[in-house]
Amino acid sequence: MASACVLSKYGAPDVLEWRTVELPEPSPSEIRIKVRVSGVGPTDLKIRRGELDGAFELPDPPVLGFETAGTVDAVGAELSGVAVGDEVAAWLPTLGGYAEYVLASTWAHKPPAVAWSDAGALPASVEAAVGTLRQLDVATGETLLILGAGGSVGMIATQLALRQGLKVIGAVGAHDQRLMHELGARPVHYGMNLLDNVGAITNGVDATLDAAGMGGLEDAITLTGGTERVITLADGRARELGVRFSLATADRAPDALDLGLQLLAEGELRLRPQESLPMPDAPLAHRVLESRRAGRKLLLYIGGSSADPSR
Known about the structure:
Helices cover 27% and strands 25% of the residues. By secondary structure, the chain is an alpha/beta fold.
């Protein structure tokens, strides 16, 4: 037996209940991970509230969490190149991260130089960042507008785009203006006057990635000259506006996690600052995330396994 934070029903944060569950058994193509730390993201909150009912098939029992890091506890019969005791990070498109043990089919070995907190915070964000940049088919020399460039996904996408030789305009709140300068992007205020703010520094952009879903798609369409190269990860008005809503799929960016871990190990990638809470305190983590628009990346750790970056 094991423990997990189970979604008892849709509703407020307290519907997340720490319960005893069956120990999951891996299929021939899966590994089982003894979780050390798992990430909490905005999509988790939307699923919990019932806003995405039907969009994601919940596991049984229903446990949230798209990303985790820990040690391999069991290996499927068809797998090679991975062994019990290996340290890994995993992207979990079928969820399950808010638990002591989770099954994974998409993982990468954690380099020793990468902190557990970073390994747990990386998978879902780097998959989304790499995947959407590829879907936009961005190229060296182009100008990319990123809405919410200071968030977990936006920050990674900003750095990857700059490495690719793009010019990046980062639409952020006042608290992230300095961050954009440090990363090498051109900051603009993300708010009601987005069209004017971006228009003050350029006549238009080649592509737009909306990583925040906090508005601005209409202005982005105008700035990009149409909807063809505008993509969103979070705005529910996408279909109404004719904008592509990018959903996580197994083939969107299968190599993203390896790439992100390698860059972290080489000191070539920065992530949002993190805050860690014990796994049973998932309801508190959801309340904290719901109470503010910007802040630290929230992580849940299993008792006795510190998520401290000092490892």
